[in-house]
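Sample intake sheet
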Amino acid sequence: MRKLEMIYEGKAKRVYRTEDEDFHVIEFKDDATAFNGQKRGTIAGKGELNNKISAVFFNLLEENGVKTHFVKLLSDREMLVKAVKILPLEVIVRNMAAGGMAKTLGLEEGTKLKCPVLEFCLKSDALGDPPINSYHALALGLATKEEITFIEDVAFKVNEILSRFLSNKDIILVDFKLEFGRFKDEILLADEISPDTCRFWDAKTKEKLDKDRFRRDLGNVEEAYKEIFNRISL
């Protein structure tokens, strides 16, 4: 399927049309940003790794009954996906207190939560992706009540599947962000699942194996992404 003109460029990916309106090509970039674009840099090989890592996770989820936009890998940096219309909602699931949650609630980072927490944010770079709740989403017409319930159910299912899988790789899934999109009459899991969108900690050492190494200038960023890919590929 031939890649045509680019229709969108984000912080970490480019999206292209194809000859079939039902499919797009996503190209993963090495660009890295943090704090709503205030910090910028490059992580060598990140595009290739995130492309392949996302493919592993999407395949795993599909095998366990979660419908995603993923179709297949096209190259080291590109995947073919269903042409979803992304909902302007970011869905965050937290198993431990870290990042913004730890800071906002005065919790020690790494505090295990008694149950997973689901949060919504309005997907808006201009506004800094502000936190909202399901009532905001309904009032603003971002999604229907049925869609919100479906998204919540899928997000918790994704958490169960990924947490169990990663536990067997000696990785803790601390928290992660999901995005969903409409495709015909379905809501599909979309975007990516990678060290850019998840917090991964080594189960034994609690070493961070994700973009926090870039955010916090911890070093060994490329090595952390490679470590995740190597472990989940076994």
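Comment: The helical segments are 46-63, 99-105, 134-139, 145-167, 212-215, 221-232. The radius of gyration is 17 Å.
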